[in-house]
Design goal:
Layout: H1 8-15, H2 21-33, H3 35-54, H4 62-76, E1 83-89, E2 92-98, H5 104-162, E3 167-172, E4 182-188, E5 192-198, E6 207-215, E7 221-226, E8 234-238, E9 247-256, E10 267-272
Antiparallel strand pairs: 1-2, 3-4, 4-5, 5-8, 6-7, 6-9, 9-10
């Protein structure tokens, strides 16, 4: 609360450049002497600057527009004369001179504008917070789905490795230079296949390694394609397939990118069950 409440409305109007000229001189002289009211004026001027830079373009209500035009006409016209208000009390008549009340509609519209700005600011803030929260939720959902997929694969590997019915086949190569490439296949007709290899030579551009089931009867069937990392290590896991019968052997060949329907390239690894 200001120490001089009689100046509060005029201070806000002065900050908005809406105070009548005849009232500016007295108020400005008061502000030079009163630190409390000067602080109040600085706060009002900061709010006015915030309104100028923050208010979005909007069509004012018709009532506000009409009042604004009326005020402008009043300012451009002649000075309004003092009015005499007649007040009856019993049989006595008292007269008092009052000057026209100026700036009251400006103050009410300032309150309306501030309320609108507060609503817009709160709405924008909540909207931005909701958007960020929604993005974070989507990101967390994607991360959870990825982690769940990794967890499911890890459980599948553990289940496959620990099953007593899993077929274990070691694949070797005796033609490559030392260290020799080697691999291991863990196969279960209902749990899928896991292949791990090491010391594989790097592949050239346009080539991949391809793993093959070699059944007891029939042609080899592709178990997938892969490329080793910079250390020559590779891992491949495939789900169970109804097309696969009991394997006789497994083999790895070098094929064109994308793989081939049947082995065409040189055999890199092989192993019999």
């Amino acid at each position: 609360m200001s120490a001089h409440p009689q100046f509060e409305e005029d201070i806000d109007l002065l900050a908005l450049d809406l105070l009548e000229k005849e009232d500016c001189g007295a108020l400005q002289a008061h502000l030079e002497e009163c630190a409390s009211c000067r602080t109040r004026f600085d706060e009002a001027r900061s709010l006015a600057a915030l309104l100028a830079f923050s208010a979005p373009p909007a069509e004012p209500p018709g009532r506000v527009r009409r009042k604004l035009l009326a005020d402008l006409r009043a300012r451009n016209g002649a000075e309004q004369p003092a009015t005499v208000t007649s007040i009856r009390s019993g049989s006595d008549r008292e007269y008092r001179e009052t000057r026209p009340h100026t700036g009251s509609w400006n103050w009410s519209n300032l309150g309306w504008a501030v309320a609108v700005l507060v609503i817009l600011a709160v709405t924008a803030t909540l909207s931005e917070q909701y958007r960020r929260a929604e993005n974070e939720v989507h990101s967390l959902q994607a991360e959870i789905a990825s982690k769940q997929g990794e967890l499911d694969r890890a459980r599948g590997v553990v289940d496959l490795l620990h099953s007593t019915d899993t077929v274990r086949v070691k694949l070797m190569s005796g033609t490559a230079p030392w260290p020799w490439p080697e691999g291991k296949v863990y196969y279960h007709p209902k749990k899928g296949l896991l292949f791990m290899a090491q010391n594989l030579p790097p592949v050239e551009a346009g080539q991949v390694y391809q793993l093959w089931y070699v059944p007891k009867e029939g042609s080899p069937l592709s178990a997938g394609v892969f490329s080793p990392d910079m250390h020559g290590n590779a891992t491949l896991m495939t789900p169970p397939s109804a097309k696969i019968t009991a394997p006789k052997a497994f083999a790895v060949t070098l094929e064109p990118a994308g793989g081939a329907p049947a082995p065409t390239g040189p055999e890199v690894l092989s192993g019999e069950y």
